Amino acid sequence: MGRARVRSEIGRHCQAGGVSRSTVSRVVNDQPYVRPAVRERVLKVIQETGFHPNVAARTLASQRSWMIGLVLPRSVSSLFSDPYFPRLTQGIAQACNQYNYTLALFLVDTNEDEQKIYHAFPAKACWMASWCSPAKSVTSSSSGWPT
Question: Where do the domains of the chain lie, and which CATH numbers do they carry?
Answer without folding.
Answer: 2-62 (1.10.260.40), 67-137 (no CATH)
